[in-house]
Amino acid sequence: MASPTLSFRRATERDASTIADLGARTFEASFGEHNRPEDMEQYLAWSFSTEQIEAEIANPGSTFLLAHEEGKAIGYAMLRDGKGATSVNGPRPMELVRIYVEQKVIGKGYGAALMKACLETAARNGNRTIWLGVWERNIRAVQFYEKWGFVRAGIKEFVLGSDQQTDLIMERPVKLVA
């Protein structure tokens, strides 16, 4: 069960270094052992540089939700408004680009609380569909998304360093789930 002290706020460019650090650490912890070190290093250096995160936060179509517990950042989500992947069929799509929580809190309801905040954000934004790409080999994440009502809609290529991987495209309506 998520802590009663868990709170969410929209991130600003001042949060870029916190998000970059949190994103790189959680991505490495989740996928490092399943990928070549040189591919992981290249991906992390580009995707989670402070400059890259600042640019993403500054994009008017992006929303970053930063999760805090007792003043410490423990997770975040990145949402991006706009047209979905070609296999996304639902109207007014919003992409859930990233949803990461610290490894030490996985299984304690923090991911669910962050997902609910993402759905609430999409609903307030007027989006009617939320979609995401998830690595086909990340079974735990696929099961988490299925639990939240996401269904498979297609596949897309994801490049990690020099390794071409396959992501499942999953989508669901933006109605809230209690």
CATH topology: Aminopeptidase
Order of secondary-structure elements: EHHHEEEHEHEE
The total of beta strands comes to: 7
- The helix tally amounts to 5
Based on CA inertia axes, which overall geometry fits?
Answer: globular
Strand order of the largest sheet: 1-2-3-4-5-7-6
Structure classification:
alpha+beta
Rg: 15 Å
Helix content: 25-40%
List the helices and strands and how they pair.
Elements: E1 6-10, H1 16-31, H2 37-47, H3 50-58, E2 62-69, E3 72-81, E4 93-101, H4 110-124, E5 129-135, H5 139-147, E6 151-160, E7 163-173
Helix pairs in contact: 1-2, 1-3
Question: What descriptive keywords fit this protein?
Answer:
Aminopeptidase; seven-stranded mixed beta sheet; 178 residues; single chain; 7 strands
Structure, explained:
The structure is a single chain. This protein has helices at residues 16-31, 37-47, 50-58, 110-124, 139-147, and strands at 6-10, 62-69, 72-81, 93-101, 129-135, 151-160, 163-173. The protein is α+β, with helices and mostly antiparallel strands and 178 residues long. It has a single domain (6-173), classed as Gcn5-related N-acetyltransferase (GNAT) (Aminopeptidase), CATH 3.40.630. Strands 1-2-3-4-5-7-6 form a 7-stranded mixed sheet, sandwiched between helices.
Task: Describe, in short, the structure shown.
The chain is an alpha+beta fold and 178 residues long.
